[in-house]
Amino acid sequence: MIKIPLALLNLQDDGFHLLVEVVVFDKTFKAVLDTGASKTVFDKTTIEKHIGNDELRTSDRVSTGLGTTNMESFTWLLPDFQVGDFHLKNFEVAVLDLSSINFAYENLSVDPVIGVIGGDILTQYDGIIDYGKKTLTLKKSKKK
Predict the structure, then answer these.
(1) Which residues contact 64 (CB under 8 A, 6 or more apart)?
(2) What is d(CA 84, CA 133) in angstroms, rounded to the nearest whole number?
(3) How, if at all, do strands 41-43 and 57-58 pair?
(4) Is residue 144 part of a domain?
(5) Structural domains of the chain, count
(6) Among 22, 33, 23, which Cα is nearest to 116's?
(7) Transferase: present as a keyword of the record (predicted)?
(8) Is residue 79 a part of any domain in this protein?
(9) Count of Cβ atoms closer than 10 Å to residue 74 Cβ
(10) How many helices (H) and strands (E) does the chain have?
């Protein structure tokens, strides 16, 4: 079991978001931990600064949520992804335009996020969120 620290972001009396530090492209970013997101998603604008467009695959799935019912989506095979001491290699993520989230964060004077950690990771690695201790616990290996 790997314990990962979380930060609790107060959205000015409009709820809370859990943030976690992730490492992608050998750089540290913040990501939102979202139990309601079915899949882990990365921001297209941020990803395109680090990879070629030919690495993104157009997805035939229609993405909903994030204030829209129809958003162009892509998938990307993330070669190396680190959340705390938890490492994933060759993990497929969705890639969407997350500018609306980052615009909202900018209005709160909060740094932008690279993405959203979703239910795919939380369910596959038996994620446990402890709000009191502000930790996420993940198993080292995928459940069978």
Answers:
(1) 70, 71
(2) 15
(3) unpaired
(4) no
(5) 1
(6) 33
(7) no
(8) yes
(9) 20
(10) 3, 13
Residue type, 144: K
| Structural domain contains residue 143 | no
Is 36 among the domain residues? yes
Planar angle of CA 107, 35, 74, nearest 5 degrees: 75
Indicate which CATH number applies to the domain containing 25.
Answer: 2.40.70.10
| Domain hosting residue 78, numbered range | 2-138
Query: Residues 102-128: pLDDT tens digits?
Result: 787 777 777 888 999 999 999 999 999
Query: pLDDT tens digit string along 31-66?
Result: 999 999 999 999 998 888 888 767 777 866 545 444
